[in-house]
Specification:
It is built from 5 helices and no strands. It is mainly α.
Length: 85
């Protein structure tokens, strides 16, 4: 019974859960950024701009802070969010 509670996250601190969610979101962003760069290299379709913008907003970051945090220029981020190449 105790193991079932652990699997469901019962008893986990809210801050730990939030941290895990933020970490997962950051992982998605990094994967999208990598995919975007690969698509750009291959001159193919870009990732859905609304996904990048949604994740950025969920992390509570403005464009400048998001770009800095994930190692891209503000110009690159704006192009990604607009769906440009």
């Amino acid at each position: 019974m105790e193991k079932d509670k652990e699997r469901k996250g019962v008893g986990m601190k809210k801050s730990t859960q939030e941290s895990m969610v933020r970490g997962a979101a950051e992982g998605v962003v990094l994967a999208e950024q990598y995919a975007w760069k690969m698509r750009k290299t291959l001159n193919k379709e870009q990732p859905a701009s609304n996904q990048i913008k949604k994740i950025r907003r969920e992390l509570g970051l403005n464009q400048k802070a998001f770009a800095k945090r994930f190692g891209m220029t503000l110009h690159e981020l704006r192009k990604m969010e607009k769906g440009g190449s």
